[in-house]
What we know:
Layout: H1 12-23, E1 29-36, E2 46-47, H2 51-59, H3 65-73, H4 79-86, E3 93-96, E4 102-103, E5 110-115, H5 116-119, H6 123-146, E6 152-154, H7 163-176, E7 180-181, H8 184-190, H9 200-204, H10 209-219, E8 225-227, H11 233-249, E9 258-261, H12 266-279, E10 286-289, H13 295-303, E11 310-313, H14 315-318, E12 328-337, E13 340-343, E14 360-367, E15 373-380, E16 390-393, E17 401-404, E18 407-411, E19 414-418, E20 421-422, H15 429-440, E21 458-460, H16 462-473
Parallel strand pairs: 6-7, 6-11, 8-9, 9-10, 10-11, 15-21
Antiparallel strand pairs: 1-5, 1-12, 2-4, 3-5, 3-19, 12-13, 14-15, 14-18, 16-17, 19-20
Helix pairs in contact: 2-6, 3-4, 6-7, 6-13, 7-8, 7-15, 10-11, 11-12
Amino acid sequence: MNREKLELVTDLYEFTMSNGYFEREVDEIAYFDIFFRKVPDKGGYAIVAGLEQIIDYVENLSFDEEDINYLRTLNLFSEKYLDYLSNFKFSGDIWAIPEGTVVFPGEPLITVRAHIVEAQLLETAMLLLLNHQSLIATKTSRIVRAAQGRPIMEFGARRAHGVSAAVYGARAAIIGGAVGTSCVLTAQRFGVPASGTMAHSWIQSFESEYEAFKAYAEIYPNNSLFLVDTYNTLESGIPNAIKVFDEVLKPKGIRPLGIRLDSGDLAYLSKKAREMLDEAGYPDCKICVSNSLDEYLITSLFNQDAKIDSFGVGENLITAKSDAVFGGVYKLVAIEKDGKITPKIKISENIEKITNPSFKKVYRFYNKETNYAIADLVTLADETIPEDGYQLFDEHNTWKKKYITNYYVKELQEKIFENGKLVYETPELKEIAKYSKEQLNTIWDEVKRLRNPQKYYVDISQKLYDLKTEMLNQ
């Protein structure tokens, strides 16, 4: 949130490594990939988010006198390096998969190409911005799918892990499919709907529940959605709401927006509420529910035939409570010197932690007839994809092969920075959300299941496989 100090939202070892390269006069170009290894909640897909804030961070990355003076007190850095930082300006290239795209483990979400002294400094903040928003966008997408077309409102600001988490978490929720947010700053800053009417305290402040509803309807006749569970939902809340609908709104020719349930047996209460509202002549009055919801509880409510029209989802969304880590990493994959690229690889006893070396591209194959995604492919940067047919294979079980035809291919990454200059036009948040919904529609429902999803394949090219194998054997 506080842009002028974001440059120090960096792990100390980024500075010590950067200073080390500087002191050794290492002027090589480094390639770093950002990718993640597993989908949160054992899901089948993720939604990438946070690029707009990464762009803002990179564009404005600089170190003022206060920063330099503090770094000097650590007694770790030379004056030459501190002078370098005082004149710092990112001068490299960045490619990224646009926000809202459906993404999968192992594929480069962002690639940084820059002098290693400066590329090293970007790691922490870029991961922070991408990991947080991608996590929330992914969680929201799961909740939206569980809601089966009913609107999801993000209600989590008061339970978020800090101000930035509230504001940017709500932004990510919109990318994931939420239709509005209770966070007014997010609504103002990003031009999305703000939602909310009343809390229990409004009702408790009046002599009676009826007077509270009546006063609200008189002040906000076109925004009358009453919280009906302060005292007794069925015996007091809904009858008083209906009474106010009849006495205040109906004479003005205004239809009520709805009621909100925030406690109790939501399935049972929603069904009884629907009966009471319909009988009173308000079949168009919506029933909104809140109270510690997530994708699993929402699914359970529908399994019980709950009569719910919309959901306000708070803490479990804004904190991604069930699996609160996205797990994106920033790994060196190549060094370029005198125009020659030398691949680099990280080896681990954990197979999933072995990196794919070198400068790469990532492609998505689509079926020409259905427009559904078939698979993703990570290749070396100099490879091209033939138009008439391609053989995919599983790098860990190479006997698993699939020859595909009748496809078209899209390169997923786009150029964001070139020689330090921004060359990408950032879409508005509403456009990103629309794009994300369109992208989800190209993914098979089996991949989007909440439990035990079908695996979507991210394969590597034969050329990349051969390089990786050769480096492992060495």
